[in-house]
Amino acid sequence: MSAPADRHLRALERPVVEAARMLVGCTIAHEGCSGVIVETEAYHDSEPACHAYVGLTARTCTLFEAPGIAYVYRSYGIHALLNVVVEPYGVGAAVLIRALEPLAGLDEMRARRGWERSRDLCSGPGKLTQALGIGLDLNATPLAGGPIELGPPPPGRPDPEIVVGTRIGITRAVELPWRFCVAGNRNVSRPRLPVRALTAGPVRRHPTA
DNA sequence: CATGGGATTGACT
DNA sequence: GTCAATCCCATGC
Questions:
Q1: Which has the closest alpha carbon to A162: A205, A123, A122, A198?
Q2: Rounded CA–C1' distance between A208 and C8, in angstroms
Q3: What are phi and psi of A65, to 5 degrees?
Q4: Which residues fall within 8 angstroms of residue A8, CB to CB, at 6 or more apart?
Q5: Residues 133-162 of A with CB under 7 A from strand B
Q6: Is the CB of A94 under 7 A from strand B?
Q7: Which strand B bases fall within 7 angstroms of a protein CB?
């Protein structure tokens, strides 16, 4: 069973946590460089880890826009991080793209990233924007027909097995299981989720022991 | 207007 | 494991 060709579009209409899961396996392309999404995180204005939690500001207004545009922001003063804005206009929600499996334009990615092995080119949210040449100037640009193109999974590619974990690098709402990774994929960022991590159902907060 | 804190990464111990 | 780099923006005085 290969993935439906419109999964990237249907994901935009969904609640952000479902969207984050559905976007795993889809593709991101920019100027001839592309990759398959292997790791995502969900952010929603109802929880304090989301930039939109503070409400509508000059920084966060992109998050409240209609779905299908990019939210690109600077992290730690250094890195540009790429998000897919989802949910209806007026809701601040986005899916952070955390890692890609490189597909095309590998030589150009290496040129931007340096000497890296293929698996290290896009194995992190700051790495993949550097590899694909995505900068802050692309904030609020459309993901269909824009400079960045969100596409369906590559034809014939089976749906990946997805593992679920808590989000990385945040200090608030740390318990939400809103991180989605392709099980066992070598391109996901660290810390890697174990292949046997939760794949469905409720979260077990504490080990039974 | 000053300040504090990041949705990170790479280098180093 | 620790830590510095570096800048935008939200907040508070």
A1: A198
A2: 44
A3: -70, 175
A4: A22, A23, A26, A27, A150, A151, A152
A5: none
A6: yes
A7: 5-10
Q: Which nucleotides of C are covered by protein (CB under 7 A)?
A: 5-11
pLDDT digits (tens, 9 = 90+) for A113-142: 987 778 799 999 999 999 999 999 999 999
> pLDDT of A24-57, one tens digit each?
999 999 999 999 999 999 999 999 999 999 999 9
